[in-house]
Structures
1.
Amino acid sequence: MSSADDLLEHVKRLLGSDVLDSHSQCGDATVIVPLGAARECLRRLKLDAELAFNVLIDLTAVDHLGREPRFDLVYHLASIDAVPREDRTAAVHRRLRVKTAVPESPCAADSVCEVWSAANWFEREVFDLYGIEFRGHPDLRRILLYDEFKGHPLRKDYPKERRQPLLGPRN
Amino acid sequence: MAAPAAIPSRRQKGDLHTETQLISMGPSHPATHGTVKIMLEIDGEQIVEMDVQIGYLHRGFEKECESGTWYQAIPYTDRLNYNSAILANLAFCMSVEKLLGCEIPRRGQWVRTLASELSRMGDHLTRLGAACLELGAMTPFLYGIEARELVWDLQEMLCGARVTSNYVRIGGVQREITPGFLERLSSSFVRIEELLRDFDRVVTSNRIFVDRFRDTGMLPLAKLIDYGVTGPLLRAAGVPLDLRKAEPYLVYEEIDFDVPVGSTGDNYDRFLVCQEELVQSMRIVRQCVPVIEKTAGEPLNVADPRIRWPAKERVFGRMEELIQQFKGVTEGIRVPAGEAYAAIESPNGELGFYIVSDGTGKPYKVRCRPPSFANVAPMRHMLVGGMLADIVPTFDMINMIGGECDR
């Protein structure tokens, strides 16, 4: 049994019926949780004394156009040594990918900014490029594109060639 | 005639101008290499509030990757971090290789390691040199840039380009090492060491420099972790997290090197950590050289023509290989459906690629986890309450690379 499978067993024990599905393709432990319970699951994964996923490495979305629900939110978590240590190098103890499906309407999920501050900008980016809103986000505005930009370019139905109007100076 | 009454000063009237001031720093400011806009509210010289606005260099990297083949995404990865393009190539190719489940020959791994460390040296030299320049010190900048130019000359010998390397390939590297490269490397390193010594003498204990760097831009360790900050910023705060040690990839497990750490996590510690990492990178490169010499003639690339097409001299002379090359170029490689995440230690921290394949010849999703993005996010907390003059050294040590942060 690989370490990814051990980890998945542990996560399943912790989250119980909230784990809809799991896999460890290429050695990456992955669990799928329901949208409504996602924030609570992520919080528990962070606070669990043994798992202790103290870092939100990455948050992104995938647009499965034509599938229902349409989007996947993909969280990459890691548990690292968070204390300065003299003796050896800090370890990355474990990594976990958490996915949750988001429908096209309402295209929204709960923000995890309270759980990890790193989520603030990552959620702004997903909102900007995929149009998924995050409930409870303290400052949800576009981050990479400008406010007047129409649409969300990483959606599969946004044509790559589309041009947006060039804006002059604002003053 | 009566003497004119003294005009009461504003201080006496109690309304000496004390409003805070709004300043827009950037997007084109000499110190914001790359483009970033920092909206500042200052009270005198103290920062009351700031908002970092990124995105000026957004070029739709992920969208572009989705429209080409897997191979066609590699040149785009060059344009993420112009200082360490090879590392971005490597991270992307490693994620695809993870999904393909292919193993690179030993010699290929050693060559990749050597190329990675050269790339890291170029990045750190730019960061350290530019930090001096932006504080008004021209001479150490020139030392740093001369050394970087020597590194980039080596990179040019390795892959034909100083900056946009396009060197690492899925299943190997672009080409065999150029004859004379290793000799050139050892002579360049002698000069680079001289330059680093000169740099060190001018900067490291320079009073002006130390005063600008020490005790500025600090953030409590818990907050750094909360923000997902990695790389030299985290190591300067005392956590020796380095993916080359924590999750060894390539051949780092067999190489002897140290991970420098700081204690307070201020800009001065960050500077010292980067300086020491340069020395460690040279140490790693020096350990790669004898192995690469010894394994001359062994394969660099995987032998599977569906992943890495055959060497040019075979393509031009043989039918079968010509067909394989043609199919490789026109159709691209088939990556099995699924998802994978691979991360490496880039000069700024964890650089990861999360890829999703639907089994066709094109990527369904290529997500780059840029270290700059996560490292810039807590910049506000590092600076609010500090002085206006702290922005430049802090920004330099965060080393935000616009191309990588904005993609």
Note: The mean pLDDT of chain B is 88.
2.
Amino acid sequence: MARPPGSPCIVSKVYITGLGLITSIGNDRASITRSLRELRHGFEIYPPFDKPDVPVKVVGTIKEFSVDSSDPEDWVFPPRYSIKREILRGLAPNSLFAYCSMLQAIEDARLSPDDVTNPQTGLYAASGGSPFLTHHYHERMLKVGVMRTSPLGIVASIAGTLNFNLVAHFKILGASCGFSSACASSMHGLGFAYEEIRTGRQQRMFVVGAEDCNTDSILPFAGMRALSLQTDPNLASRPFDVARDGFVGTGGGAVVVLESEAEVARRGVRPYAEVAGWGQASDGYNVAISHPDGVGLQLAMKLALKDSGHAPEEVDYVNAHATSTPIGDASEIKALKAVFNTPGVRPAISGTKALTGHGLSLSGVMETAFCAVILREGFMPGSAHISQLDPLCEGLNILRATVAEAPKVVLNNSSGFGGANVCTVLKRAP
Amino acid sequence: MADDVHKNTEVNGSKQPFPTSAKSFTAEDEATLTEALKRCSPATIEAAIKFRKTGDPTPVPTVVIGIIERFAEPDQRARLRGADDDLRLIEDLGIDSLTMMEIVILVEDALQMSINNDELRNLRTLGDIKIFIDCKVRGLPPPKPSRFLPIEHIGAVMPIQPPFLFLNEATIGSTSASAKYKITGDEFFLKGHFKDNPVMPASIMLEAIGQLAVLFLIEGGHGEEGKQADPQTIYFTGCEGVRAHRICKPGDTLTISIKPKRLKMPLATIEGQIRVGQEKAVYVEEITMTYGFREAMAQPAAAAPAAAAPKSVHSLPAAAARIISPAPV
């Protein structure tokens, strides 16, 4: 079976069959669906920011979890997640969110222990690690000596904490890896996981994103003036609004289960959606600022559409990266205009970070999960909190309110530091 | 505060209080200690404070057990409470090496001592840990680590041989020994004991305890440096207080353990027991044996094949290989 050099050996379609979500707008699919439909945000004035020298005030908080202590045994989380100390001791807040999301996703996809543990099932993950615990362990090391730091301090706090913990505790035997491309990380994870399945190297992949949601994970972004200084939770995150002034930080966890056609048929499950293609391209421009014309994002969208076999005019809905920063949103607006430039082609566009805040590494897979919900439930969420649309958006169909129309083809955008851009195309499952 | 410490040092006299007691134990230290031990029982915290204040090592085992208990899974904690010193941390309590590190770090923190990796590797049982920490606290050298002996080694040194050898593997410590024997069902005596109902004879289980005691003596458990128990001199003399609690059948793995009660040549008295899992099977208050030392060790010239003779009492394959004459206990 020789194949021409350069062409991927595609042997299977890939479906999303399970979701797990711990987010600022809900900790289960039902409440998240309602938040997306009714445009309920998850923002609160965050008490640790209530200091005169901290101008940032609003955070997309994770409810029902209290993980402010550096000692995991102090943490409080919903009793439906029973976690042994042996597991807990190696977790950071982000890996706790991911752990709970994994349990949800496995239940949601109706996977048996054997479905989870076999050489054909892998796990890709993305998080920025836990700056909070890194800080704590370093401080302890300096205070009490190098031999008295927690033996699990490293695995709990560095960027690979998700894959280390989840692969070990869920007994994953297939491919496993972590991705590190800042806010595009978990979309990279999704893209490469999709690749594993469609080329037949794996039958099932868990794609995981998670981030802490605390001072140490959010506030460092204040230095580059990336955070919104709005004190009103109803105004702080407003992508595409002319008065947007930065993103609102959040954390949480998201897991998407991808499966091959054969596994979907064998298990007789109903998928949320099909992953139809993906593409990525880079700006090659600035370490932290996106290209003013969004050249990398343009190319990534075009490549993703080409990979999926869909023309731009077939796209019904775009879940924009749209973090609510002045520069980032402007780049994306220009990129969208460049891709959807055929007269009369106006896919509905919204940014769900207006509701959740920006989950950094988590955001790509979290928004993929939102798109899966949207495709199954048949609605398109509005882009919340816009009081005055940025005039730059002229010609784009930025949804101002939720529409009860079922999209068939959805494009999901994600961009990260260094000008990394990743897009995926999802479509309604048959 | 400094005066208190001085007074305590005098009170303890020869007990050699732990060096840190020379530093004063402040209210701040007490708060830090209480915080570090916050998930331990009140008795553990109290014992740690007492040790830190006085340097008296008596409460140290309470601290150590309390810290182990805190790290054990809740369903295992009950086992720790009534446990004897043979309880193994990894095999019996399910404590892994990372949890061991957590235990060590908290013990170090609570008792203000440091334990290095080499020392840690030798601690397998509750008894190992108690003795180790006790030596540390008193400023004594730590005891020799326990050694694992596979069947090949046991077969080579023991005067008792199959089909009458009831030890598959053994671990010999300085003050205790343990061994395992799996009842296969092929033991010759099970054909008749009983008819159509194979049950391990209680007398054979006592024999297994005795055999472990023989191995303990041969491996230097008598405690006299430079001397070697002669396998041909070891014989059973008596036993006291035997109780059988559980019927043992093919498929059961016997965990045999002994502890010396009195050791003075020519008599060795040990206490022994057999468990199957956590169930007590046999207990014997005392088994007493005679033993003597090997002459050859004192007179190297007399031992002709001594070129390959062992340098230490802990390895004696050359000598042992010659010994096959049975000496049942």
Note: Chain A touches chain B through twelve residues (CB under 8 Å).
